[in-house]
Amino acid sequence: MNPSVNQPESDFETIEFNVSNGLAILKLNRPDRLNSFTTKMHTEVRAALKQVKQRDDVRCLLLTGNGRGFCAGQDLNDRSVSVSDEAPDLSASIEKNYNPLIRTLTSLELPVICAVNGVAAGAGANIAFACDIVFAAKSASFIQSFNKLGLVPDSGGTWILPRLVGHAKAMAMCLLGEKISADQALRIGLIYSVVDDDELLTEAINVGSRLANGPTKGLSLIKRAIHASATSTLDQQLDLERDLQGIAGKTNDYREGVAAFIEKRQPEYQGN
Predict the structure, then answer these.
(1) CATH of the structural domain 216-262, one choice from 1.20.120, 3.40.1000, 1.25.40, 1.10.12
(2) Given Cys at both, which of 39, 48, 131, 151 links 114, Cβ 3.0 to 4.6 Å?
(3) By C-alpha distance, which of 119, 139, 133, 142 is closest to 192?
(4) Angle at 235 between CA 229 and CA 239, to 5 degrees
(5) Tens digits of per-residue pLDDT, 163-209?
(6) Hey, do 9-212 and 216-262 end up sharing a CATH topology, with the first three levels equal?
């Protein structure tokens, strides 16, 4: 076990990060700015996710925010956009910060849960949609706000949204930038569940704890297979399922699952 591979849990300023019983909880913590991203926050999130990847005591990740918003995307005050200044290269920020974040969340070999506690706007919405299971408080909302600044949805939005809600709805969401309520998001398939505001974190932690005590390797293979299906033919997906099942069948957790079934008891998975 290597619990201190990067920054100690207490050193962060713009996020909160802790691990307990296999569940890592990462909270965005700039509530006065609706948890919008700055360069510092990106750096700290990256450090926390490095711990998630390298610590063998982490078997599930829960991402949420403090305060009344989940994440309002990029903090525009962290950039100089004055007409008197040279135009910023936004592609550099995406390449350095947002793209690696989305790639990490989608490729982590463990389940990633998101608990959206308030507004999720711009990149903040697309970061949530990149997670494996998304819970939202009843008061939460989602908005593709890029069009209001003359920008293009990033953080995987133009890839994820059509796959979640279809071409027509994704196009309208991005071109119109209309706010989507939590109930609407559930109805059109953007998220998994809507929870009362005061029960959101409890519900997400309960599900996260259940996943953290599950067969982690097998769960990671499920995640890998579903992500691959977006760009695979049926024949390719059948072959991938075959190969991944071969890997899963050699895990200790599979042996434990079968033994527990035969012995009519609850399995005690170790995540390998």
Answers:
(1) 1.10.12
(2) 131
(3) 133
(4) 80
(5) 999 999 999 999 999 999 999 999 999 999 999 999 999 999 999 99
(6) no
Query: What strand order describes the sheet that includes 193-195?
Result: 15-20, 23-28, 60-65, 112-116, 133-137, 193-195
Residue 139 amino acid letter: S
Nearest 5°: phi and psi at 124? -60, -40
> Please, what's the b/e burial string for 81-116 (b: 16 or more CB within 10 A of its CB; e: otherwise)?
eeeeeeeeeeeebbeebbeebbebbbebebbbbbbb
Overall pTM > 0.90: yes
Q: CA–CA separation, 85 vs 268, rounded Å?
A: 59
Predicted pLDDT of residue 81: 54
Q: Enumerate the domain spans of the chain.
A: 9-212, 216-262
User: Comparing C-alpha atoms, which of 103, 174, 114, 111 is closest to residue 143?
Assistant: 174
CA–CA separation, 182 and 175 (whole Å)? 20
Q: Which CATH class is domain 9-212?
A: alpha beta
Joined together, the tokens standing for residue 9 give: 């849990």
